[in-house]
Amino acid sequence: MADPRKPGERGAALLTVLLLVAVMAVVASTALERLALATRMTGNGGAVDQARAFADAGTEIARLRIGDLVAASPGKTTLAGNWMGTPQAISVPGGVATARVTDAGNCFNLNSVVAGETEADLKVRPVGVSQFQALLQALGVDARQAQVAAASLADWIDTDGAPQPGGAEDETYARAPRPYRAANRFMVDASELRAVNGATPAIYGLVRPWVCALPTADLSPININTLLPDQAPLFAMLMQGQLSVAQARQLLAQRPADGYGSTVEFWRAPSLAGLSPLEEAARQVKLTTGFFEVEVSVDVGGTQVVERALIDARQSPATLIRRNWGTGA
Fold it and tell me: Superfamily for 51-104+290-325?
């Protein structure tokens, strides 16, 4: 080691000290950077938790208001009050929250392609399969592609291992680059459709706005009092080729301002004269809404959380069925 008392070694001693100072500076800088990162992560985690708590509160407020909406008019649910899709501001400390409520039953219920008392015994429901095929065709999908996707959807959910004509079971998925198996259970989220044979990315992107995964095998409960003209393909789906999308849109645009008072009144509409819907399809037309979707967006301190929840209002009180979260950038 250099001896600073010797004139010839004083430079080496100074260099050693400078090197030690430099190393200590690097170590201190790294430690401070990691401490700052840990502090930011802790702060971000706290902000996300806070935002989620606000989102949960917003969903609960919406659930109670949905209960009030249904109770105020138990015989029919209409667009009165401008509740459908209208952003509602919710005051939250240190941020802003917005809630939107929509009719979650006006969609094609992917689980309606099967029927059964329990999830252990799900059998193909032909009318549900034909409706999904009709929806795809109404959206412009080729008839053959639509038939394959619809049959494969039913095989994906039903509990047997025998594929329908044009459908697919485990042996088809076993040949995939990354093999997997059919679910043989209800879908929980519509995004699961991407795993189904025949549901190409193009078809999925086209049909995604029109489908849902309700927690029931019931045929899609279409509320004719809240179905918007832009949702005409869903009504054309029920008529399975007897009514064009344009005709369905015109029918919905002519709906009475206060909605239909009965399904008999609806089916007597002049634009439906001469048409003969299947009995199952006729019963699908509803005057009330049983499922609602709530979307709550919260922004607290630059941290954004989006919560989407499904509310079952078929019985009182309205019940939260499921929810999921996403975060904004």
Answer: GSPII I/J protein-like (3.30.1300.30)
